[in-house]
Amino acid sequence: MKGKNLSVLNLSRQEIPDITEDVKTRYDWVPVGILDRDDYFPILTDAYNTSTTNAACLEGIADLIYGKGLYSENELLNNELNSILSPDDLKRIIFDYKLYGNAAIQVIWNREHTRVNRLYHMPVQNIRAEKIYDSARVENYYYCSDWEDVRAQRDKIKIPLFNTSDKTRELFYIKDYTPGKYYYSLPDWISALQLAFVEAELSNLHINNIENGFLPLVMVNMNNGVPAPEERDTIEAMIEGKFTGTRNAGRFLISFNDDPDKKPTIDSIQTENLHDKYQYVADFAQDRILVAHRITSPLLFGIRTANNGFSSQSEEMKTSYSILQTMTIQPFQSKIIDSLSTIFNKGGISQDTQFYFEQLTPLAILSTTAEETDTTIEEVEEDINKSMENPDEMDMETETINEE
C-alpha cells in the first residue's frame, strides 16, 4: 500500500428520534431530550424555524384553533373573560400546545386564595416537571429562563401545580396522554420531525449552491508533488477565495506550467438526475409533513402542491375544511376549553362557563355556500358557528337526514 493515500469515511447517519425523559439525573426536575440530555424543546423550536411547510402548518392550525376568539354563553362571565385571560395570552397558549404538545398557564390567585384573578401564558419550553417521589402525581414545576445555562438554573423558580397549595402563583400544565411518557407529551406532528429538518437541509443545499456559483463538485489534482502542510493550506485558501461565493461565479482558472506532464487536472464529479432527486425529496418531505399535521387540503393554508390545482378549489376546500374542523381543530379546542373550565370552576370564578371558540371559516367557503343557499355570508357564518358550538345537535340532524 506504499504511496497510496486512501481513507475510509464514515458518512453521517440519522436515526428515528427517540424522546427520553431522564429521571436518573441528580436533579429534582426531569430533563427531556432527543439527541442530548435536555434538548427536546429547542429541537422542536428549530423544526419550526427552519421548515417552511412545518411553520405554515403550525401557524395555520393554531390560527384556526383560536378562530375569532374564545367566548362564553354566560353573559356575566363573557364580559370579564378578557380581563382574566387576554387574547394574546390565549393565542400563545394555543400555539405552544400545537408546537410542543405541551402548554403552561400561570394562575394568579387573590390574597385569600379563594378566587383566581388572572391567567397568563408561560413559555412551556422553560418549564420542567419535578420528579415524582412519594406523591401520586407531579405537584411542582420549575421555571428557568435558560436550562442550558448552569448559572441560570440556580435562579430557577419552583411553582406548585394548580389547586395543590395556598400560594398566590400556581401552574396549570396542559398535556395529552402519550404512551411511554409520563412527565411530558409529544406534539401530534412528531412523526414528521426528521422531515422538517430535511426541508431545512434542502434550503442549506440550495443556498450553498448559490454561494458556490452552482459549480459542480470537482477534484483538483496537483501533479507536481505533495507540498508541505503549510503550503497546502495556502493553496486551498487561494482556490476557495477565488472560486467560491456568488460574486465569483463564472470565473475561470489559468495554470502556468513548465512541464505538460505536471499540469493540474480537474475532474468533475457528477451525479445523474440530481435535480430530479432533490425535487422528489422536497415533494416527499412536504407531503409527509402535511400528513403528520392531518392537513386535509394544503389550499386551506395557502400551500399549492402538484396534486392540488385550483380547478375544483371551492368544493375541495368545503369538504376539506369540514373534515379538518372535526378531526383536527375541535380536539384541540376541546382540550383548551376543558382546561380553562377546570381553572374557572376550581378557581372560584364560575361554575357555568359554557366556553366556545368562534370559528374562522375561509371566505371562499362562506361565499360559495351563501350563493348556493341564497343567504348572506353573515348568516352562513352564524350557522357554521352554531353547528360547531353544538356538535351533538349537528349529529342528531345528520342522523335524521340519514334516516329520511
Structure characterization notes:
By secondary structure, the protein is of the alpha+beta class. Among the domains are: 20-188, no CATH class; 363-404. The protein has twelve helices and twelve strands. The protein has helices at 40-50, 52-66, 75-84, 87-100, 150-153, 193-211, 229-243, 274-292, 313-346, 363-373, 377-389, 391-403, and strands spanning 20-21, 32-33, 70-72, 102-109, 116-122, 127-129, 140-143, 157-160, 169-175, 217-221, 265-269, 355-357. It has a three-stranded antiparallel sheet. A three-stranded antiparallel sheet has the order 6-7-8, with no helix packed on it. A two-stranded antiparallel sheet has the order 1-2. Helix 1 (40-50) crosses helix 2 (52-66) and helix 10 (363-373) crosses helix 11. The longest helix has 34 residues, at 313-346. It is flat, with a radius of gyration of 29 Å.
The mean pLDDT is 81
Question: Which residues sit in consecutive blocks of at least 5 with pLDDT less than 50?
Answer: 1-7, 391-404
Question: What composes the largest sheet?
Answer: 3 strands, antiparallel
Structural class: alpha+beta
- Rg (CA only): 29 Å
In short:
This protein has helices at residues 40-50, 52-66, 75-84, 87-100, 150-153, 193-211, 229-243, 274-292, 313-346, 363-373, 377-389, 391-403, and strands spanning 20-21, 32-33, 70-72, 102-109, 116-122, 127-129, 140-143, 157-160, 169-175, 217-221, 265-269, 355-357.
